[in-house]
Amino acid sequence: MAKSKQISAADKQLIFRLMRENFDKHARWYIGGIISMLVIAATTSASAWIMYDIVKQIIRGHDFRMVVAVSAAVAAIFIIKGFASFFQVFFLSRAGNSIVSEQQRKIYDRLMQQGVAFYQDNASSDLLVRVTHNANAARNIVDIMITTFVRDLFTVVGLLVVMLWQNFTLSIAALIIGPLAYLGVRLILKRVRGLMAKELSSIGEIIKVMQETSVGIRVIKAFSLEGLMKERMNKAVCDVERRANSIATLEAATSPIMETLAGLAIAGVVLLSGYMVVHNIGKDVEAQLMSFITALLLLYEPAKRIANVRVKIESGMIGVRMMFDILDHPLSLMEAKNAKALPKGKGKIEFEDVSFSYVDDHQVLKHINLTFPAGKMTALVGPSGSGKSTMINLMMRLYDPQKGKIRIDGQDLRATTFRSLRERMSYVGQDTFLFQGSVRYNISLGKPDATEDEIIAAAKAANAHDFISGLRHGYDTNVGDNGSNLSGGQKQRLAIARAMLRDSDILILDEATSALDSESEALIREALERLTEDRTTIVIAHRLSTIASADKIVVMQDGEVVEEGTQKQLLAHRDGLYRHLHDLQFHTGDDVFEDDELDDMR
Ligand SMILES: Nc1ncnc2c1ncn2[C@@H]1O[C@H](COP(=O)(O)OP(=O)(O)OP(=O)(O)O)[C@@H](O)[C@H]1O
To answer: Can you tell me where the transmembrane regions are (predicted)?
Structure first.
């Protein structure tokens, strides 16, 4: 962490970058805001200056017209200042709100570019804090920088000119407190930094507990984990409360320091000026002193804000740093500069000597050489952890293999644009994810410009139309949070309808392992048969029916392909792994096997 003495060079660069990136876009608002602030600074100084004329006219004035002119000037100064304050807020809040939305868009765009690996390394609660809190921190820093260094600084300079002009000796006496105030604030800075970082991580923990509660509520209830969750939440909430208190105390601690110093300075000035009046030193001394003391009193607030600016910047910089961390985080998966679209083809997929590991010391796939024939169904089978899902992850280019090549219709995936690759594929997974919205919306995600007829045809082909028609609002029924208003089998059929609508020539299917009731299972099986027809299909197969209808079966073990062939060929291998897996399932009487299918297989 940087020393407390100065804002670190890295932070200065970030602030500069933040200002540069945001100033151009919102120049109109900022220029309006800056002009308003200059007017505020000028009118504030003028209001101190005019005290001289007020006192002079009242005490010694013989010309009533001058008195009228002075009072008109006073009114004008205050009216102008009032309008300038309005425009300052008007312009700066527009710029500020626009910065927040701009930064949030930028962060989200960057997150969208990141590969799956990034999301595994970063907790979603942490990302949430970054999108919500940190974008606001960026706005605050820009606001603080501009108001402090334009409005407050110019006000202070204007008032200092008034003071020096009115009485040089008193000015020097009063200004001795400046360096003392600076020393006082420095003491506070260091602690604020550490506390802010900790407070943010506690806020992240609150969000994490809340997310886990919402997603895992069934498990929490079933295992009576309410107490445990409450304890976690309580701890996080207390941490935030404690740190917020400490930060507030520290920020407030600048007040007694500043008030004491200001009190001493003003008392000193009163003493000195009293002496001058008593001994009649100087011309129009009373008028001068009124103007001087007004300027000194007006100086206090902006000077305090300037002295405090580092504490404020320190607090905000934690969020800004976190924001730039995300914006500058290298992309885990990049599209090649000269990437080409994947041309329409039959959908043949080849793995050539592919090796892959998620983490350095654990190789998950080892030298895979394999072809998935175009227009045919290939089933991947093998024990849990053998690498089946990883094969699919690589095929969709969610990760890149460390070694070897994957080609679709002869084109290397690394030389292919993400969009064209993903457009050629549909994916139906074990856990169907549904987005907040209607049934229609969720199906249409397969092809956003689909017509109503196409959506209904896809739902019919997926055996989903009947149940959808029976829902309260038919296709307009809201599916709830991640489809919570639908059953597992219904959700799966919606996913199949989505893939039907997409009508891509490669289909990737991760079959559900969880048991469905037999009617649901039959409907899904029938829908899948329709979906997989004449498509290159790669399926992680758990059901015997799927394996039996596959054109090719690939058996995996410990990241290697140990057998491949048709069902018949593999069963003929008495000592083969497939034969072993098959016998194991058969003898356990797993209900996914049906007698007639087993007879067929033999
Ligand atoms: N994101 C990840 N980070 C690190 N290791 C992972 C990750 N995903 C999977 N693995 C590891 O890679 C290996 C292969 O996992 P994979 O999910 O491909 O197996 P699988 O055959 O699909 O298993 P299952 O049938 O249980 O789904 C396992 O040892 C697993 O622990």
So the answer is: 29-52, 64-84, 149-166, 172-189, 261-281
